[in-house]
What we know:
This protein is of the alpha/beta class. The chain has 2 domains: about 85-290, TIM Barrel, CATH 3.20.20.140; about 365-565, no CATH class.
Amino acid sequence: MNRSLYSKLAKVCRKESPADCIFKNASIFDAYTATFYPGDVAIKQGHIAGIGRDFLGTNVIDCRGKSLVPAFIDAHCHPEATMVSPHSLLSTAVLYGTTTFIVNPKEAVLVSGKAGLDYLLSQSEKCPANVFFMLPYLSLRASTEEQEARFDGRDIFSYLRNPRILGLEEIMDTKGVIHSNPVLWKTREGTESKFPGGHNAFLSEEREDSSLIRLQTDELPKDFSYTLNEVHSGMHIHIKEGAIARNLDTLIEGILSEKIDSRSFSFCADDKTIDAILREGHINHSVKKAIALGLPMGKAYQMATINAAECYHLPLLGAIAPGKQADLLLLSDPKEVLVEAVYHKGKRIEKTGKPTSLHYPKELRKTLHFSAVEEEDFLLPILKRNTMVLGIQENAVETSHMQVNFKRCGNFDPSRFSSYRKVASLSRHKGKQKMTLSICHGYTIRQGAIASSLSRDCDGILVIGDSDRDMCLAVNELLKMQGGIALVSRGTVVKRLPLPVMGMITENGEGTLETELREMKEKLHEMGISLNMDPLMPLRYLSSPTLPEIRITPEGVYIIKDGSSRLCKG
Length: 570
């Protein structure tokens, strides 16, 4: 805060000059004590000038019978996962009360390197929100895959000069942490003044090496016992309600049963898709759900505000106190988290309803460079009786490593089985075509195939089907669209969702995308996918080389355990 601003706030506080606006007769949430108390809040130049009574000013907002709380903070999110532009995502989430976002641009960096990061930085500047970034540390992925859009330590150091870049995050190289990997350590030394985020990526419980390098966050704890060990080591835990990975119920129930302090926990949306946000809400959904599970209301609001602000060292955010930025929510019912109005820097955010015309850099529009495939490319000979299979679990990111005895040899024909399908992962890069074929269990698409360019932690293409012809057609349709999702049945493209920006983001608005996703999922359920499963989620996670237990990438099939990976020979 500069001297000029301080002087103006002080005059309002001393009742010597008028406030820009006054929230009068509010029930104010004190984030420091997790309690509510009555009072007025005076705002000047986007900041809180004072809390009390009888402030000067004519712009008065009557808050009688209502609560005033700090605006919410999303402690960890991947905007590309929503499939809409950053502007569309932020403009939507803000209306649910979230005005601060801690962004990890991992997928954009994997595909487009610095161009992808620059795009997210520039687009997020134009939104009525506070958007900070944690740069991705990609060494585990680099150890298993070839990355076309390089982003190395030199790039990291250059971006860390940006005040909106808070540090590094998702340091998944747990083997490198344990064994003091020199590249990781050099990067850590060069970013000592910045924040180092996790996560621990399913280390065994006896390993606490990550606390030595001071990884400070995790959003992938296995269970509450594991979480408690992390908290004992000084880590901050993000409670996620993402697209498929959700741990709110488990962690809130653990906090309540163990009667531990909740100040080491905050909420995050992670990879929550735009249709889920429109259906459920954003961080407000997590607050309401936590309260319903029995967490004291004040503790739930701390998790959505001050906890995340203190975790990331954001002193102007997360609380209603003199000198803080005036990011506020007016609630008609704090228990139900009914958001009546959202204020960012003291100004009310309104839903315009007008589509925003956005510019997408040319280098982000053509990111699929592989050659068209042929039906013969999908022939998969069964050479051994015990064959490796990727087990897909309903609504879980974890997979299981299965060994199945397919008695007949020859080429694998998935149409002969009710629950086994062929799966392939292809490189999107220029040069020599890389492709891995395998078998998966639990994704029961019938008489068709689906291809997607939305793989998490991997910039490849994934296709699953029971017909070589349909798998070939789906992949080639994806190439024509330059990314997205292509659904094929009996030799015909039945649904297509173009995502031409980095193969991840639509050029349409969130309303159009929501409709397209709903229709795509309905068709997949008709084609045999369990009604209990989100049929698009396995396409995101099956190629992630950072999550247990078995994954398929263009380089091969990998077994992941205790943060390390090995190529599986089948």
